[in-house]
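Protocol step 4 of 6.
Sequence for PLP-dependent aminotransferase family protein (Comamonas guangdongensis) entered exactly as in the expression construct, tag removed. Do not edit the line below.
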Amino acid sequence: MKAIQDDSLPVWLPRLSVHGGPRFLQIADALQAAMADGSLTPGDRLPPQRRLAAQLGVDLTTVTRAYDEARRRHLLEGRGARGTYVAAPKVELSAILDLSMNTPPPPDGVDFDDMLKQGLSQVLMRADTALLMTYHLGGGSDSDRKAGAQWLAPMFGPLDSRQVVVCPGAQAAIAALILALTEPGDVILAEPTSYPGLRAAATQFGRRIIAVEADQYGMVPERLEQACRQHQPRLVYLNPTLQNPTAITIPERRRKELANTAKRCNVRIVEDDPYWLLADAPPPPIATFAPEQVCYISTLSKCLTPGLRVAFVLIRDPHECERFLAALRSFALMVAPLTAALATQWILDGSADGLLEGVRKEARLRHRMARDLLAGRYSGAGDGLHAWLELPGYWSSAQLERAADSEGIAVTLAEAFATDATSSGSVNAIRISLGSIKDRGRLQAGLQRLSHLLARRPESFSAAVV
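Step 5 output, structure tokens:
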């Protein structure tokens, strides 16, 4: 950094290197370094963007991107016509280390802000703005459905895009399938621990969920057949890859057995498969073994970002597809067209693949961290977004939740995933999510704190009284 003399502005001008990487990042990094060494302090006014661009010999866009990046890092604040100023340090008001929310981790080396801006810019350049601001009733535009077919290609190979429906998230898809394929009072079968959104939707719609025994390989086919004969269910719900919450992946042989059982019993399967693309060499989806028997759901929220409330549903039967769309429109008319268009743009131009690979790498790195810090207790699969920790006998999940909360850690109890009353309390475990804490160092601190807590007995834990 070299000094410049200016009567109205701080003495600050970054030095740029030919081989130092993108210039906008060099400027933002120099700004951060100047704040760290005291060359710039909170309240200092920065040069106007045009003046700084001229002094550095770069174009205005470079400086604009640098200032935007600095704002993203909470280094700058705008004060209208008065200009841009160095911001005061951001105060972290919440000390909670959240291991409870299953979201993709922020991928290292991916400039998400830039990716978002470029994607939206491409959408706005190529799309008819009027179409982005009106109703879409067909389960997605032709382009959106083609993007969905491309997204599902790693699982199924080439698909007829007319069999792909675009939905506002997997939860909406599950609810619409329940409405379309069952009647009030009907039974839905699921594993004893399962995604809570299933129970929420089924209860709201007056359907009954009954648990079917599962082992270390997932739902037991013989028990499924017995339950089908006993309860005459209309649906079976399965989350077969890196199951939420247990992280179990049903092996291929078991998947074939479950598909054949569903065929014999004439029961439909809802295959909710949000983590397939994050898994290391996952088996083929159950839908490949019983295409007409299975409705398959894949969401972008668990692989890319929750802000993309877009899921793709593969339904082979056109009449069933129409019933599904009618059910979906009763409570969620459509995906927001702008969101769907952004998802389509990212899938078709390859940005989604790059983001997915970044999320996959970051998730695996975090699993290795969890395995090291929770040695002997970690039971994750090494990929995906979460791990399932069975607790030592001296801790109940409720005790541990209270103790963890006092340590500033949020976890999710096994009870939250109980399918029905018979499975509630049958497992003494917690689920920890590895993506919701953005900073890897804070995640490490949370896992270390949790490890120390698990090593103690409840008797040695005492909460502060204030």
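Step 6, annotate. Confidence is low (pLDDT under 50) at residues 1-7.
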